[in-house]
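To: structure subgroup
Subject: Chain for Friday's discussion

All,

I'm putting the inputs and outputs inline so they're searchable in the archive.
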Amino acid sequence: MRIGVGSGNPVKRAATERAVAGTDGFGDGAVVEACPVPSGVSEQPFGHDETRTGAANRATAVLDTTAEAYDLGVGIEGGVAEYEGGDGLFLVMWAAVADGDRVGVGTGPSLALPGGIAARVRDGEELGPVMDDVLGESDVAEKQGAAGALTGGRVDRTDALRTAVAGALGPFVTDLY
């Protein structure tokens, strides 16, 4: 089975590899490859709808690439969102898996953003560069991610995204759908 991940980010590819590892029907024979495609949403998705749409757009765009033939396309999108009745802004992550006929979606954990970080994102900055600045590092999004920083390393970005991809795989790994 060939699986294309709609991003060049190695963390998103690794999250997909972890989600499909040992899965009946995929097993160790699954090949997971990066296939960068556009999300069709803003660089910093705001809200669950825009973030989920970006993931679904990536998953289906992978299947539309002419260079490779994939059995499944995976799209993963991180964004920020508010919750009705909640306080503040949250990091959210959505994944979508498509096979050309069906699209499954799943979400990872939601993590509250500290006030200063949330304020900068609300003012139009992207979360990744804000985290780089706050942490004094570069490419945080391709390492521990905001999830790792916000949880003191207890949940890294790969594991958080793996959960979203595993949820999106539901229609492809069980007869319950």
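Points worth raising on Friday:
The chain has one domain: 2-173.
Residues 48-64 form the longest helix (17 residues).

D.
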